[in-house]
Every structure is written in C-alpha cells, then in structure tokens.
Amino acid sequence: MFSKVMSFLGLVDEEPQEQRREEEYEEHGQQQAQADGVVPLKRQGTVVSLHTQKQVRVYLAEPEKYDDAQAIADHLRNRRPVVVNLHKTSPDSAKRIVDFISGCTYALNGTMQKLGHNIFLCAPENVDIQGTISDMISEQQEQSQQAHNKFQSR
Questions:
Q1: For the residues 27-50, what does the mean pLDDT come to?
Q2: CA distance 38 to 54
Q3: Structural domains in the chain?
Q4: Cα(39)–Cα(32) distance, rounded to whole angstroms?
Q5: How far apart are CA 74 and CA 85, in angstroms?
Q6: Are 141 and 147 in contact (CB under 8 A)?
Q7: pTM of the full predicted structure?
Q8: DSSP codes of every residue in the chain
Q9: pLDDT at position 56, please?
C-alpha cells in the first residue's frame, strides 16, 4: 500500500504490472521447467489494428412538399445525417416538414441544428455535431446590416 502511495506521488518508479507478471511467469516457468525437464514457451501478444473507419454519408434533401419528409425520416432511421434545404418549399409546408423531421430526430435520440435560413442539419445519435454555424451567420448579417446603415446615413 505504501509503495502505491509513493508511486502515485511520483517518488518511486513503479514497474508496470504487466512486466512484473511476465517476470513472475518466467520465474515460475523456469522453476517448473527445471523440475519437469520441459522448457516453457514465452507468450506473444496479438496486435489488432483498431483504425477501422466507416465512411459516413450525408444525405442532402430539398423537399418540395410535405410528402417528401418521409424519405428524410427514413435516412435518419438508417443512421445517416441529413441536410435539409427548404428554399423550394412553401412556408406552410416548410413548417410542417420541420415539425415532422424534428419529431423524428427527437424520437431517434438525434440532434437538429439550423445552419442558415431554411437550412437544417438532422443527425442521428451516432453523429456528433460540434460548433455552430448559426452564430457566424448572425454575426455576418449584423455586420452587413451595420455597413448598410453606415452607407445610408452618408
């Protein structure tokens, strides 16, 4: 116990546990080999590559009517992120589509984020969304509005 505290504080270098086990195994194996006349084989570890990457596809959707929302929900259910552009949709249909897709996203434990005016990113739970674009768009709009106001005041 005392040696663990000393090693935790960095006052003593502790050998890795695996190395100590190998030494104990070798010592025990040598003692048994001498007694039995058998030479034990040293165990070699197996190396497995964990750098497997699955390619994630993002589906881009431009629904024109409410009926197109079903296909978007199917992609979400199949664990594919979807970018939804509602520029070609009437305001009433766009609202219904957003309501439907946000409900589907919530039911699948996913996330939904607004990327711009009438553009949304819907991601299933296996996709992590980091950062926000909305803030940058708002800042750009404010800056362009300020520049426009300065120009008009002259």
A1: 58
A2: 47
A3: 2-36 (no CATH), 59-136 (3.30.110.150)
A4: 9
A5: 17
A6: no
A7: 0.53
A8: -HHHHHHHTTSSPPPPHHHHHHHHHHHHHHHHHHHHT-PPPPP-PPP------PPPP-EEE--SSGGGHHHHHHHHHTT--EEEE-TTS-HHHHHHHHHHHHHHHHHTT-EEEEEETTEEEEE-TTS---S-SHHHHHHHHHHHHHHHHHHHH-
A9: 80
